[in-house]
Amino acid sequence: MKKLPAILGGAAAAVIAGILIYDYAYLFKGIKKTYLRGQRSATIDDLKLFSGNPVKAGKPRLWEEHEDYNTHPLSAALRENLESTRTASFLVVKNGKMLHEEYWNGHNESTLTNSFSMAKTVTAMLLGKAIEEGKIKSLDQKFTDFYAGFAQKEHGEHLTLRHLAEMEAGLDWDEDYKNPFKPNARAYYGNSVAKAVFSRKLKVQPGTRFEYQSGATQLLGFAIRKAVGQTLADYLSEKFWIPMGMESHAAWTTDDTGMEKTFCCIHAVSRDFAKFGQLFLDGGKVGDDTLLNADFLQQIITPTEKSGGIYGLSMWINHDHEIKHYFFQGNQGQNIIVIPEEQMVIVRTGSYNNQPKNDRGRPEQVRFMVNETVQIFK
Questions:
Q1: Which residues contact 338 (CB under 8 A, 6 or more apart)?
Q2: Among 45, 125, 294, 300, which is most exposed with the fewest C-beta within 10 angstroms?
């Protein structure tokens, strides 16, 4: 029995050595930021745990309240769904006016929450802006124009920015949110997103097939940042956050080098998330000012052939549903849903783990919320 502590100590040392040798040191940070806080995964309220670049707001343009603001009760089915899935906020905008606004679990109109992968669509918007300004030639510009060394990878010379935005990059990337040894955890908790994504191989030639991969958007973020010559948080602030009249400053989580995690992690208030949906309804314009070129906006919301009609340019799309809609989508049920025929935007944030995705790869909750909300707020 006297040897037991020594054996256990030796085993622990061996495990730690193995973690360091095989570059899994980020696991220590992940454990500290999740399990030691009583959590099982990343949360929408983890901004304070990471460094981030500020997305500064300018003069706020407050939402005008609809004459029926918060007068229509939610249906019993919708309320039960929202509350059972740990919803933090639920907002409905119709005809450009705030119609319904409700918060749960200690959140309110001033709470910044994690966008998770809704940031992918925002990154695509920054791509469109950089193309409009001539800082990027086109969607079909080669990634190797920005990072020549990528040509050394098999198939690397064929990768374009379009492939990255449309999720046709062909990366060797397993989009697993629960396994701590998979690349998503390394990118989220690691010290360097560059190390996490540039180390990945290409398993097929880009453009061959649709496969949703966070690594693709992170590579896209590297290309945009190099093209615009400034932090993406500053570029977002300058081109969208300030002109859209966002009500609050936001923050974009970074790695230890200051690079934004473009596959996720814009922390903002729900009222400002709703303004992204309204921008799309308004054809990329705020008043008389065009913030996003209408042609590029249309490309974002046009489903691609290889996705089977469910994905556009970093945007989820459901045009096969009787109520056509498209939506920004983030892990655990972060949603900005745009319903053009109803001139409606729905925002839902929260912590819905194990979310069913049986609607051709799209979350069932999105379709449910669309059906219920349109019926309530006719």
A1: 277, 280, 281, 325, 326, 327, 344, 345
A2: 294
Alpha-carbon span 86 to 356, nearest angstrom: 15
Tell me the residue range of the domain where 178 lies: 47-376
Handedness of CA 201, 202, 203, 209 (dihedral sign): positive
Residue for token pair 């970074």:
254
Please give the model's pTM, rounded to 2 decimal places. 0.91
Rounded to whole angstroms, the Cα distance separating 115 from 112 reads: 9
For the beta carbon of residue 350, count every other beta carbon within 10 angstroms: 22
* H-helix segments, the chain: 4-21, 26-33, 76-84, 118-132, 161-165, 183-189, 193-198, 214-228, 232-236, 270-281, 294-300, 364-376
Specify the pLDDT at position 22.
Answer: 46
In this structure, the answer to whether residues 13 and 140 fall within a common structural domain is no
* 145 lies in the same domain as 246: yes
Task: Count the residues in the chain.
Answer: 378
Cα separation, 48 vs 45, whole angstroms: 8
Pairwise CA distance, residues 317 & 179, whole Å: 27
Backbone angles phi, psi at 295, to 5 degrees: -65, -40
The pair phi, psi for residue 258, each rounded to 5°, is: 90, 5
DSSP for 205-251, written as a single string: -TTS-----HHHHHHHHHHHHHHHTS-HHHHHIIIIITTTT-SS-EE
d(CA 196, CA 24): 11
Residue in the structure block whose two tokens are 């899935």: 85
Residues 30 and 53 in one domain: no
Residues 82 and 100: their CA atoms lie apart, in Å, by: 14
Domain count, the chain: 2
Instruction: Note whether 151 and 188 are same-domain residues.
Output: yes
Rounded to 10 degrees, what is the CA torsion of 292, 296, 301, 306?
A: -150
**Single-letter code of the amino acid located at 284:** G
Per residue in 325-354, pLDDT (tens digit) is 999 999 999 999 999 999 999 999 999 988
Tell me the average pLDDT across 42-60.
Answer: 94
